[in-house]
Every structure is written in structure tokens, then in C-alpha cells.
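Exercise 7.
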Amino acid sequence: MPLIPEEPQIHEKAQGPRATPASGRTAPTPRPVPGPRPAAPPRPGRPGPVRPAPPAQRAPRDTAVAKPGPSGPATPAATAAAPQIQLIPATPDGALDAAEEAVDLLLDSGRTPGDVLVITTGDPHPWAAHELSFGDAAYWAQHDAGDDVFYADAAVADRAAARAVVVVALNGGPEAAAVTALTVAHSRAGALLIVCGDPQRINSVLGAGV
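Solution. The predicted structure, written as C-alpha cells, is:
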């Protein structure tokens, strides 16, 4: 008699395993999820595309390049290609900031810091003021090392050696300082001269014999 109640229990157990395929977890396993994550590593590099726009768009290269003229007799330096000149319109108050943006763009585009010389006509750049507080010798030692951007006032810029790129910030000062800065910058720039300031003033100085 105990055998009769056991038979329905056997049938219920047979129905149990049929439900296991429905609960199988192998199909929905989300293995492809980790795949897309490596595709989004835009970490390397600064926000380069943001900065390049201002200096590249503001520079009226045509008018600037037409202004400079070679100075007289043929020498190996005179025969070499004159530096390209770019003008970045800026007020005296904003010229130093514009120069800093240009330097950032140069470094972002692959220039090494030792390629760049910055000349100011008004207040010295904060870096120059800081370095000069340690004395003239320490300041020029930084220049001679040649491994960083060097900032010089127009009054002492003629002591600076030639570099691939020279940036001039017309951030105030007398007209004579602007003439000196542009004259020195033009002679020191190997490939590119960037001038940040009032375009009218720059053109008048360039036309005056730079």
C-alpha cells in the first residue's frame, strides 16, 4: 500500500527538471559589455582643438609676411628664408594673455619649450620677474640652459640667442620699446615670429624698417 502514494511523487519530480532549461543563465550572460569600454580612452592630450583656433584664425599672415624686408648686402643669414610672421590682434592689457595662448598652442603642436622666446614691451612676464628676483646671473643661466620657454623684456632681449619661434607681446611701454622688440624678434626668430598687439601699431612699426 505505501507504493501507491509514491508514484505521483515520481511524476512530479519528472516535471521538475523540465523547468531547469527555462532558468538556464548561460544565454543572457553579458560578455560583450566589457568590450566597448576600451574604445573610449580620449585621455591623452590637453584640450588641443580648443586652443588652436584663436591663434590660427586671428593671424592675418598675408599682410604680415609682406611687410618685412631683408636688410641690404647678401650674407648667409640674409639668404636664408625669413621667418613667417603672424599677427594676433590684442589690446595692451590682453597682449600677454594672447602670447600665453600662442605659446600653449606651440607646445601642444609639438614645439619644445626651448624653441620659444617671448619678448614683452611693458610689464615683464611674471616668470621673468620671479627669476630676476634671484639675480641677473641666475636669470640668464635659465636662458643659457635652453630647456624652457624664456621670457625677456624688450630692453634686454638683444642678449637672447636665436630660437625657432619668437613671440612678442605688445603689452604697453613706449613706442621705442615696440620697435626694439620687433627688430630683435625678427632677427632672432628662425622659423616663426608671432606678434600680439594692435595690428595698426604693429604694421606701422613693421613698415618703419623691421
